[in-house]
Amino acid sequence: MKKHLGFWIAHFNVLVVCLVLLGAFSIQLIEHEIPCPLCILQRLAMMLCALGSTYVILQSRAGVLSLNDFAAGYGMSILGAVCGAAISTRQILIHIVPPDPGYGDPVLGLHLYTWALVVFMVVLIDSGLNLMFARELVSESPLEFNWPSKAIVGLMGAVILANTISIFCQEGLHWILPDDPTRYELFYDLGLFS
To answer: What is the number of domains present in the chain?
Structure first.
């Protein structure tokens, strides 16, 4: 098991980011908090972070995971985390001056964009550690791309699809999202609501 630790860490990384995205998605649907454009960009950056680890998992389908594949995957995660951290920081700075209440309701005392910054920092640390210990984490022995791998990759695909549909419903037939969205524009464009 230790020989394949890097392979299983990639699974854990994808699962955690998917759970964070599903949490944000559930707040959107259950509490009717429609994400602003910066929130959507943060979600896209999180998906890029998870796609780095997904790349590591998918490269193992051939049975081995090379050091180059491992580095490329975590490099992708680092790029996603840096972009996402910049976007999160921008949104935090927009709402930092009192009496601005922030965008959306806080979760455990912090707004979702602040939690997003925490997630991006954790991804940066995790990816950096994975790259530092890549030689120890990657083995040349065959890996099994079995049902847990398929389930994690499938979950990632479902999260991407759900967010794509949500963004399309939110934006409708318009090129630009409003800064403070209050409705799903597609339903109004199609005349389902007046």
So the answer is: 1
194 assigned to some structural domain:
no
* pLDDT tens-place string over residues 30-78: 988 889 889 999 999 999 999 999 998 888 777 777 888 889 999 999 9
Report the half-sphere exposure of 129 (CA within 13 A, side-chain side). 11
- C-alpha separations of 86 from 63, 113, 119 in Å: 36, 11, 12
Residues with Cβ within 8 Å of residue 172, at least 6 apart in sequence: 184, 185, 186, 187, 188, 189
Question: What is the pTM assigned to this prediction?
Answer: 0.89
Instruction: Give me the pLDDT at residue 1, please.
Output: 47
pLDDT of res. 98: 85
Contacts of 23 (CB under 8 A, 6+ apart): none
The conformational region for residue 32 under phi > 0 = left, psi -120 to 50 = alpha, else beta, is left
Q: Within 13 A of 50's CA, how many CA atoms are on the CB side?
A: 27
| CB-CB neighbours of 46 under 10 Å | 24
Predicted confidence at residue 194, as pLDDT, reads 64
Other beta carbons less than 10 A from residue 38's beta carbon: 19
**Domain encompassing residue 67:** 2-189
> 80 lies in a domain?
yes
Q: Which amino acid is at 169?
A: C
Residues of the chain with pLDDT under 70: 1-3, 139-142, 194
